[in-house]
Design the sequence.
């Protein structure tokens, strides 16, 4: 799984209001314990991403009522936490993720407060970041099109390639790709077609990865497209709809270009939404049908082709699911909550099938936890004296989870945990 999920569920919101994620730990035996990543970059901190090499990035709020957010990088979970250089002195930046080869992606404001996607190198975190520049002007194809004015990152693969939105002055956007460390855009979608990049995988064709997009169709309803490099540019394939579906949208893609998404049908109170799996860009999708005609939706897919989904329940409380055998709707496994609890909310799926969760304990307080097929749902041990935590995601291989947690002083700390 790439980093798209993290972009969608960035834990930076914790910096603004922790009330929604406060959690309390009861006494329990813990298989994994949070590590505090420090406060060299600020007073209140969170972790945005940890890669498979235990390199971490995140964001801190400084001890100031007016100063900018401070992005940071840590070469190991033991530190040191290093502040990342801004694009322009005095202007804000934030980090989103770090690839396995050490390219950090984020966003920075320029001197006129326009934000651009940016990348730093883990080998030189104090250097000014590289701006991922918008599409340049065009004279002929298309005719007299002015240059775009901003960029916003959507996802990053493990080799450091980034997909982003190149945004025009009229706010029309084009999906573009930047190879690792490069600030030069390669157009992926049609000019100003308002497609949105969802995933960029790690399988390369002549050096370029596949890109998954949700695009507006001719009727305004979404269509799913995969872009694959061919003959010096990207060629787009539209994924097929299942029989009777009104439309579908994509949730994720793996390194085999297998896609997970969700499809809607007419009379959706009876013909419920369903998780869909496309074995290839040209295949007909398989859909997930559950007992009680329960509606369901895809959240992520890993390199094994296993899908994280979410379903409705007759209690009114949605439930996370693990769909392992996509050839059948049988054998789908519910993610069982912690003892004494009734709910979970998944925030990431590792390639080893580990799922990062935000749970509730028996006292009805949310708590960071994780699930494995063999071990079920397990809570994470808190920081010493701390009572509050939330996860933001899981590293691609499934060995690290990360987020934020409080300590005895009620300080919000950037944290990560290595799983057994």
Sequence:
């Amino acid at each position: 799984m790439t980093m798209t999920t993290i972009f969608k569920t960035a834990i930076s919101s914790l910096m603004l209001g922790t009330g929604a994620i406060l959690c309390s730990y009861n006494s329990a035996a813990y298989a994994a314990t949070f590590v505090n990543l420090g406060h060299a970059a600020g007073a209140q901190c969170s972790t945005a991403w940890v890669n498979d090499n235990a390199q971490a990035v995140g964001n801190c709020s400084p001890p100031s009522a007016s100063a900018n957010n401070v992005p940071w990088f840590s070469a190991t979970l033991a530190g040191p936490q290093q502040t990342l250089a801004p694009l322009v002195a005095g202007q804000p930046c934030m980090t989103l993720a770090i690839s396995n080869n050490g390219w950090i992606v984020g966003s920075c404001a320029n001197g006129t407060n326009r934000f651009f996607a940016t990348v730093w190198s883990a080998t030189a975190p104090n250097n000014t970041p590289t701006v991922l520049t918008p599409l340049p002007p065009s004279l002929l194809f298309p005719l007299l099109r002015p240059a775009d004015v901003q960029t916003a990152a959507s996802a990053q693969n493990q080799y450091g390639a980034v997909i982003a939105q190149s945004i025009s002055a009229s706010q029309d956007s084009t999906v573009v790709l930047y190879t690792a460390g490069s600030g030069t855009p390669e157009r992926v979608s049609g000019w100003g077609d308002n497609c949105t990049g969802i995933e960029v995988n790690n399988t390369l064709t002549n050096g370029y990865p596949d890109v998954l997009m949700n695009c507006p169709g001719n009727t305004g309803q979404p269509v799913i497209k995969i872009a694959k490099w061919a003959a010096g540019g990207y060629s787009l394939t539209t994924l097929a709809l299942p029989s009777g579906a009104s439309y579908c949208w994509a949730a994720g893609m793996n390194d085999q270009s297998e896609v997970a998404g969700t499809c809607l049908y007419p009379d959706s109170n009876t013909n419920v939404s369903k998780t869909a799996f496309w074995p290839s860009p040209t295949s007909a999708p398989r859909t997930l049908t559950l007992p009680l005609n329960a509606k369901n939706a895809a959240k992520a897919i890993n390199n094994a082709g296993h899908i994280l989904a979410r379903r409705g329940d007759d209690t009114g409380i949605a439930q996370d699911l693990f769909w392992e055998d996509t050839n059948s709707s049988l054998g789908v496994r519910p993610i069982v909550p912690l003892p004494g609890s009734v709910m979970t909310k998944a925030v990431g799926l590792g390639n080893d099938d580990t799922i990062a969760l935000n749970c509730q304990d028996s006292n009805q307080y949310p708590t960071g936890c994780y699930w494995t097929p063999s071990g079920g749902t397990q809570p994470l041990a808190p920081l010493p004296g701390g009572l509050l935590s939330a996860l933001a995601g899981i590293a691609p291989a499934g060995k690290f989870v990360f987020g934020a947690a409080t300590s005895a002083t009620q300080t919000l700390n950037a944290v990560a945990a290595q799983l057994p």
In short: The chain has a mean pLDDT of 92. The radius of gyration is 21 Å. The domain at 4-418 is CATH 2.130.10.120 (Methylamine Dehydrogenase; Chain H). Residues 4-8 form the longest helix (5 residues).
